[in-house]
Amino acid sequence: MPTTLGVFAAACAILALAGAAYYALCVWAGLRFFVSKPPEATSSLAPPVSIMKSLKGVDPHMDAAFRSHCLLEYPEYEVLFGVADLNDPAAALVQDLQQEFPQVRLRVVHCPEVLGSNGKISNLAQVAPQARYEHVLINDSDIVVEPDFLRRVMRCFADSRVGVVTTLYRGVAGRSLWSKLEALGIDTDFMGGVLVARAMERGLRFALGATMATSKSVLAKIGGLESLVDVLGDDYELGARVAAAGYEVALADVVVETALPNYSFRDFWQHQMRWARNIKDRRIAQYFGLAVTFALPWGVLGVIAAPRAWWTWAALGVVALTRWAAAIAIGIRVLRGRQVVSDLWLIPARDFVALCVWIASFFGNTVVWREERFRLRDGKLTRA
After folding, report:
1. Rounded Cα gap, residues 127 and 143, in angstroms
2. pLDDT(249) > 90
3. Beta strands 248-259 and 162-172, pairing class
């Protein structure tokens, strides 16, 4: 009769093998993204664009991020920066760039009203009426882009069915261990999940905050940015609402990067918990399914529970092979992450920490965002 440890080991082995299948899907989805180009890839469409950013404080590499938006190879665009406080140090950085790049339209927009719990969207909703052009692009203040970024994003609108365009992104870690673990999670796990969702669902049903390009008319059809001022996952919700309105969410063939701070453990945990609880709140069925993505920890736990069983070691070997294969396919081949190779040895630690985050996320619905505590329900924030 099987012992309790034997049953546990078998369950872990099954989860590990299911996870190995998932990582094989990540490799397939990554290669599919890499080799396939959208029909609009040769389009020369380049409509004028208003880039909108919400600012609060100075983020790591913010100067490099802003500077990259001043070097875009694009015929006509402007960059609008929304700030609640005109004395914010980020606004001073924009003023310096205005002097350095007089040929680029850079504007600071004062956003004095608090329209909801999501301060970023509150600012952007006040910036939007100031936008000069029909097409708008929203991205975070720490996003660094290549000179051809805007051209490659906007040509996706050559397909009239497209309502919003988003992009993959890679993490650039700071010096701390926790920063490296988050970057590794983005580059070798989260982006793989995005590509698998795109392949399995025949297109995306959400957007990513690294890039959200759309138009004023599409925003009007989903209730405008004002309808998102209390939503935590505004990027997910914006894409979901655009898809529900009958448009397609396109994934451009370009990758941007986000610079991560030198997290302390506390900051890292709060950030991870905010992500986890937002996904759990919005896609609960898929969130339970994430159990298989912790395949490496399940494989290790299976071996610990039944170290003399050959099949636990076999399951661990299979999952280790596919986990590292997915990390290389997504983090290096697709995202071209410069730090992935040197940090591959941290994957076991990252995956065990991610499993702890996943388990802990079920015990409560509070999140901390910019030192404020909120309750999360149905995607909306209320101050705790």
Report:
1. 19
2. yes
3. parallel
- Residues 184-222 have pLDDT tens digits of 999 999 999 999 999 888 889 999 999 999 999 999 999
Could you say which DSSP state residue 43 is in?
A: -
DSSP states of 293-350: GGHHHHHHHHHHH-TT-HHHHHHHHHHHHHHHHHIIIIIIIIS--SSHHHHGGGHHHH
User: Half-sphere exposure of residue 35, counting CA atoms within 13 Å on the CB side?
Assistant: 7
> Which domains can be identified in the chain, with CATH numbers?
4-33+288-383 (no CATH), 44-276 (3.90.550.10)
The count of other CB atoms within 10 Å of the CB of residue 325 is 16
pLDDT score of 37 = 57
Burial (CB count within 10 angstroms: exposed 0-12, middle 13-18, buried 19+), residue 246: exposed
User: What's the CA gap between 236 and 241, in Å, rounded?
Assistant: 9
Task: Report the pLDDT averaged over residues 169-179.
Answer: 94
Instruction: Give yes or no for residue 35 having a pLDDT over 90.
Output: no
For residues 238 and 219, give the distance between their C-alpha atoms in angstroms, rounded to a whole number. 9
CA 345 – CA 166 distance, rounded (Å): 30
**Distances from the Cα of 331 to the Cαs of 246, 324, 341, in angstroms?**
32, 10, 9
The one-letter amino acid at 222: I
DSSP structure string for 90-125: HHHHHHHHHHH-TTSEEEEEE-----SS-HHHHHHH
CA nearest 180: which of 347, 327, 305, 65? 347
Cα–Cα distance measured from residue 150 to residue 165, given in angstroms and rounded to the nearest whole number:
11
The answer to whether the CB of 52 falls within 8 A of the CB of 82 is yes
* Model confidence at 1: pLDDT above 50: no
Cβ count near 332 (within 10 Å): 17
Q: What is the pLDDT of residues 347-381, one digit of tens each?
A: 999 999 999 999 999 998 999 987 889 998 888 88
Which residue intervals of the chain are DSSP H helices? 4-35, 62-70, 89-100, 119-127, 149-154, 177-185, 191-200, 216-221, 234-244, 265-282, 284-289, 295-305, 310-326, 340-343, 347-360
CA 229, 171, 168: angle at the middle one, nearest 5? 65
Buried b (16+ CB within 10 A) or exposed e, 97-108: beeebeeeebbb
**Is a pLDDT exceeding 70 seen at residue 3?**
yes
Whole-structure pTM value: 0.91
